[in-house]
Amino acid sequence: AKEAGRNQVQFYEAAMNERITERALIEAELRHALARDQLSLVYQPKVDLHSGAITGMEALLRWRHPTLGMVSPARFIGVAEETGLIVGIGSWVLRTACAQARAWQDAGLPPLRVAVNLSARQFQDQRLSDEVQAALEDSGLAPPYLELELTESLMMHNVQAAVGAIESLKRLGIALSIDDFGTGYSSLAYLKQFPVDYLKIDQSFVRDMLTEPKVAAIVRSVIALGHSLGFRIIAEGVETAEQQAYLREQRCDEMQGYYFSRPLAPDAFAAKVTAARVC
Ligand code: C2E
Ligand code: CA
Ligand code: CA
Ligand code: CA
Fold first, then answer.
1. By C-alpha distance, which of 234, 216, 127 is closest to 176?
2. Which of 13, 89, 113, 163 could disulfide-link 56, Cβ–Cβ 3.0 to 4.6 Å?
């Protein structure tokens, strides 16, 4: 038993060391990722559940490292936030997404709204609204075609400060949404203080709603109450025709998920939008 215990401890230490090494490696490499041109954005369409039209797209960060290969956001976004690297990376994401959206408009694609994820660090930064304004001006993208996705936890951390920050972003004329809705500890009652446009129902609810009646009840009440408070509702992680049909029946407004499209590299996204237009 003593032997087994010692093995257990060694195993645990090895696992800990591995985690620390992994984190240190990610951190060291992430520092150079931007300068070495390893970051890119992919775009996932958002679709109107009633007309079937593409209404916009979410920009998602991708990191291709020469030896580590593709590193998923789950492995590096947390590190980027803890180290503050997310500030520089996030500002690159914002500028790149705005420039891309404008380039597509110039190329004759129907004008679409591009959504950018915001981390807590960026949200707490006093200069955020100046930075957003600069990204809009430099790219020439009209404000209504930019949407920022904020998470609940990011806003609930300091409600008063969040209301102020959100109001100054809204004054720029951009759209705002609350991401991963239902996973944090906010309530719809709180939300009426925030002048946001969209609620995005978290994918965990969409995944389970057709097998768990209680989850379906949550989805239905978020849609109904959200609508009565004036929000538009987006469901994320829609993977099947049955999920799409259910959400449409419940009068959800828009959806996003593998069922319609995975996130796409810019060229593939443009081709998808063009194809969706002809039929
Ligand atoms: P998120 O904002 O909730 O983004 C949705 C995630 O779900 C994306 O994962 C997307 O690829 C994935 N997804 C979309 N449709 C489906 C589906 O039908 N089924 C399933 N199972 N998954 C689906 P991804 O790209 O790996 O990003 C993970 C998270 O990393 C994002 O979650 C977001 O929190 C963060 N992230 C990604 N890009 C950025 C960025 O530019 N800035 C910041 N701050 N965070 C980002
Ligand atoms: Ca998001
Ligand atoms: Ca989400
Ligand atoms: Ca998420």
1. 234
2. 113
Query: Please, are residues 196 and 177 in contact by the beta-carbon 8 Å criterion?
Result: yes
Whole-prediction pTM = 0.93
Q: What is the largest CA-CA distance in the chain?
A: 71
In the reported structure, the alpha carbon of residue 228 is separated from the centroid of ligand 1 by a whole-number distance in angstroms of 28
How many whole angstroms from 109 Cα to the centroid of ligand 4?
A: 28
Residue list, ligand 1 pocket, CB within 6 Å: 44, 60-61, 72-74, 77, 86, 90, 93, 117, 119, 179-180, 203, 236-239, 257-258, 263
pLDDT in tens, 74-84: 999 999 999 99
Structure token digits, residue 172: 């720029």
Spatial CA neighbour of 50 closest among 266, 265, 251, 256? 251
Three-point CA angle 8, 12, 15, nearest 5°: 140
Select from 43, 57, 60 the residue to mutate for testing ligand 1; criterion: most ligand atoms less than 8 Å from CB: 60
d(CA 52, CA 198): 18
Alpha carbon 140 to its chain centroid, in Å, reads 23
Q: Which tens digit of pLDDT belongs to each residue from 39-67?
A: 999 999 999 999 999 999 999 999 999 99
ipTM of the prediction greater than 0.95, yes or no: yes
Closest Cα to residue 171, out of 207, 203, 219, 133? 133
